[in-house]
Amino acid sequence: MALLTGRLVDPTGASTCGQMSADPMCISPKSWWACVNYYLSVIPFLAAVQTGVIGDGVTKITIQPAEGAEDYCTSYTDCSTKHADLMALWETFFQTMKTASESGATDSEKRDQILSTMWAAQQASLQQATTSCSERQQSYSGPKITFAQSWVNAADYVSAAYFLSNLEKSVQFMNPLPGRVLTATDSPPNIPDLTAEENHTLYIFSWMSSINRLLGGTLVRSWKSAMCSDSAREKGRALLDDLVLNPKFAVSGLLSILTEMATNC
Predict the structure, then answer these.
(1) What is the pTM of this model?
(2) Phi, psi at 4, each rounded to 5°
């Protein structure tokens, strides 16, 4: 469904859920990553079932929560009651998917319609998740919290560029995410037991978040202003490739690139 899928087997606290070989599919409800991804996967799934994109549109699905996960909504009706605006956005996306093929729009126009509604719903899910899941970060180390916050902030860039979150591209961007839980002593890009790619990704995420904060939000605003057309968003997606996947890319020149792109809008 989305680019922003973390590594869910991330138990915290006393829970061994996700670690026991007898139950490898279990995901700890204490995990911040699992909580966020619930809003990015289960809630869209319920909307897809409701709109008939999955199933017959009649069958009702109820999610069985794990022990300690009573605060999660578990059905379309439950989630619509608790998160009405969020569910409405996901339903709009799935309805757009169903009707786009029947419209007389060009392929690029159809793609933009689908991606714009998808990322609107995706951002709404992420915003709700950051509020609902915040307490689950209390047991995390400083570097892990920093990475989580930077990971969330990265959505501002991928959403504005209408990132094509197919399986191939998502895997490409997920592979360089850290393969273990970050500890208090970790300092990217110099973490010895992580790969160069993992160190680079951690550094870039942190850099983008820090620079945007220091500039009072200018980096995100410039990025969004520059993503003003289909061709501009294509360039934006190429920039994301360079930022995350090319360690030799000169990040210091990013703002000037975006300013030039925005000027041409």
Answers:
(1) 0.84
(2) -80, 70
DSSP designation for 65: P
* Residues 23, 59 contacting (CB under 8 angstroms): no
Q: What would the pLDDT profile of 12-31 be if each residue is shown by its tens digit?
A: 333 445 444 455 566 677 78
Rounded distance between C-alpha atoms, residue 177 and residue 161, angstroms: 20
Closest of 210, 219, 216 to residue 256, by C-alpha:
219
Q: Which of 192, 164, 158, 162 is nearest to 178 (CA)?
A: 192
pLDDT digits 0-9 by tens, 36-82: 988 999 999 999 999 999 888 777 888 877 676 778 888 999 999 99
Cα separation, 184 vs 186, whole angstroms? 6
**Full 3-state SS string of 195-219:** CHHHHHHHHHHHHHHHHHHHCCCHH
Amino acid at the residue 201: T
121 neighbors 92 (Cβ within 8 angstroms) = yes
Query: How far apart (Å, rounded) are the C-alpha atoms in residues 27 and 64?
Result: 13
* Three-state DSSP class for residue 74: coil
Query: Which tokens hold the place of 88?
Result: 């409405």
The Cα–Cα gap between 201 and 64 comes to 35
In this structure, what are the phi and psi dihedrals at residue 75, rounded to the nearest 5 degrees?
-150, 170
Distance of CA 198 to the CA centre of its chain: 18
What one-letter code names the amino acid at 208? M
Q: What DSSP string runs through 17-43?
A: TTT-TT-TT---TT-HHHHHHIIIIIH
